[in-house]
Write a structure and sequence with these properties.
Oligomer: single chain
Largest sheet: 7 strands, antiparallel
CATH topology of the largest domain: D-amino Acid Aminotransferase, Chain A, domain 1
Order of helices and strands: EEEEEHEEEEHEEHHEEEHH
Distance between the termini: 31 Å
């Protein structure tokens, strides 16, 4: 399918192709793994397959609780049909526990619970290293309107509440996650919906009993067993039944 379709955009982990009808795109999940703004790269065989399944599972359930998103349906092992949106050039990060850049930036101990869930905004620009920005920057540079910021924050917190419970039920702690949003136009009006993906590439997920990392930090920090950890997340969520043999063995 992808060979005949026109490529619209290629990112670090996914490719977007034109969809079968207007207002749709096909999102293809690659096996490429990147960290530190693509300074560190590898191919992890089967990663795209697992992330496609996990993101489908989560987006479907979020739709079910009224968090509107771009997911329509999964097409095959690596592709899903999505609504075409105008991406807001922001990464919205929700943090529950100190890890990654907030620990470094504020001198916090990794694993320290935060006083409450904290939302941060980062401007999407790889060349600049996705700098952190404030609501003042966002409105001044017209990346999003005040109402859109409110909508994104409200949706991000709903996603956080839902995913925290979902993962907690299978023995996983949701440390933090990154989401992106897009605008859907209806006549003269637009509304904000959730876009991109939700997977171990975009979440920090720790085993609740051992604090073992089950996410992209295994790649960032050379901890090994990246695919095995992603597979374990899928297994705990109960979505391993149709996973292909491509991901057996994994990368050590």
């Amino acid at each position: 399918m992808t060979t005949r379709r026109k490529k619209i955009y290629e990112g670090k982990a996914k490719i977007l192709y034109e969809g079968p009808e207007p207002g749709t795109l096909i999102q293809y999940f690659k096996d490429d793994a990147t960290a530190f703004n693509a300074q560190k790269k590898a191919i992890l065989e089967g990663k795209g397959v697992i992330n496609n399944r996990i993101s489908e599972y989560i987006m479907t359930r979020l739709n079910g609780i009224g968090v509107q998103n771009h997911f329509i349906r999964r097409l095959n092992l690596r592709e899903q049909l999505i609504k075409e949106v105008e991406i807001v050039p922001l990464e919205v990060v929700v943090r529950n526990i100190a890890a990654g850049s907030i620990a470094t930036r504020l001198g916090l101990t990794e694993g320290q619970p935060l006083p409450r869930s904290i939302i941060e905004f980062y401007y999407k620009d790889d060349k600049l290293g996705d700098p952190m920005v404030s609501e003042e920057h966002i409105t001044a540079f017209n990346w999003a309107a005040t109402q859109e910021i409110d909508d994104m924050m409200a949706m991000a917190l709903r996603v956080n509440d839902y995913l925290s419970g979902l993962f907690s039920g299978v023995g996983i702690t949701l440390v933090d996650f990154k989401v992106e949003f897009g605008r859907i136009y209806e006549g003269d009006f637009s509304r904000i919906i959730l876009a991109d993906e939700i997977s171990p590439d975009s979440c920090r997920l720790w085993d609740s009993a051992t604090n073992e990392k089950l996410d992209k930090d295994r790649f960032r920090r050379d901890l090994g067993n990246v695919i095995e950890s992603y597979t374990e997340v899928a297994r705990r969520l109960g979505i391993m039944k149709e996973m292909p043999t491509v991901i057996q063995g994994g990368v050590h």
